[in-house]
Amino acid sequence: MKIGYKLVAEAFGPQELVRQAVRAEQAGFDFVEMSDHFHPWVEAQGHSPFVWNVLSAIAAKTTTLELATGVTCPSVRYHPAIIAQAAATLALLSDGRFTLGVGSGERLNEHIVGRGFPGVHERHAMFDEALDIIRLLWKGGYQNYDGTYLKLEDARIFDLPDVLPTLAVAVSGPDSIALAAEHGDGLFAVEPKSDLVSGYRDAGGTGPLYCEAPLAWATTEEAAVKAAHTTNAWSVAGWKVLAELPNPVNFEAAAVTVREDDIREQFACGPDVERHLEVIGQFTDAGFDHVALMNTGPDADGFFDFFEKELRPRLVTG
After folding, report:
1. Which one of 25, 106, 110, 212 is the catalytic residue?
2. What range(s) does the Luciferase-like domain occupy (predicted)?
3. pLDDT, tens digit (0-9, with 9 covering 90-100), for 120-129
4. Residue 211 contacts residue 290 (beta carbons within 8 Å)
5. 37, 124, 229, 276: which one is catalytic?
C-alpha cells in the first residue's frame, strides 16, 4: 500500500500547497494528490489555484514524492489535447512521478466556459472520446479524431516521456467502471466500496487503486469537527448532488442540514489514532492500495507531526 497526502487546493493558496507537499515528502508520504478545480466548494475555503502550475513547482522541489491529479476533467473546460500535453510535460518534469487522474467532471468547475454541462450519459460519452484522444496523442506523431462531441485536427505532442503517465480513471458506478477498464491504467474513487474495486478487476482493469480517506486532525475532537463542518459539510451530500451544483453558494445551501454528528460519522475527527486507522481501514479493506489522507482539520503542520509520530508507524506495520 502507498500512503498519500491530499493537497486541499480549495483551502490553501499555491505557495502553501507547495510547502505542504515538501513537508509531506519529509514526513514519509509516498504521493500527493490534488484536485483540478476552478472554484472552491464553498466560500469559506477561499482558494482554487491552477493545479498544473502547483504540481510543476512541487516536482521541482521534491525528489521521491509521486504526484497525481485527483481528478481532472478533460472534456469540457479543457480540450483533451491540452491535458495530454500537460500530463506529458509534467511526467517529464517529475522524472516519471506523475499520475493523471481523470473524471467526467462537476458543474462547479466546467460550466464556467459557457458550453453548458450535459447530463450524465452524455458526459460519459464525451469523457470516452476525451480518453480516446489522450491515448491517441500519447502514441506520438500527428493525429486526427472526428468524434460526436470532440475533434482533433493534425495535432502532435512533441515532448513525450519514454514511460507515459499512469492514467487513473474516476469511478462511481458501472458506466464509469467500464470506461476505466477500457482506457485506464488504474482507478480513482472517493467511497470505500469494494464493488468498485471488484467491478474494475472483473472488467479486466489493472493497476493502482486510488482513493481519499476523510480525516480531520486537531488536538481535540471538538475543534476537528468544527473545522470539518465549516469547510466540508457539503461532502456528505453524495456524488450525484456534488456533480450538479454550479457555484459555492449552492454547496453552502445544500449543506445547511448537515449536522456535526454527520461529520463525526464520516470523518476521523480529533487526535485518536485508532479512529483515524478505522476510517482509513474502510478503504484498505475495500481493496484500495493508494490511499490519500485528506486532512480537513485546522492545523496542517500538527497533522504532519501526528502522521510521522503516530499514524504512519501503525499504517506501515499494518
Report:
1. 106
2. 7-290
3. 999 999 999 9
4. yes
5. 37
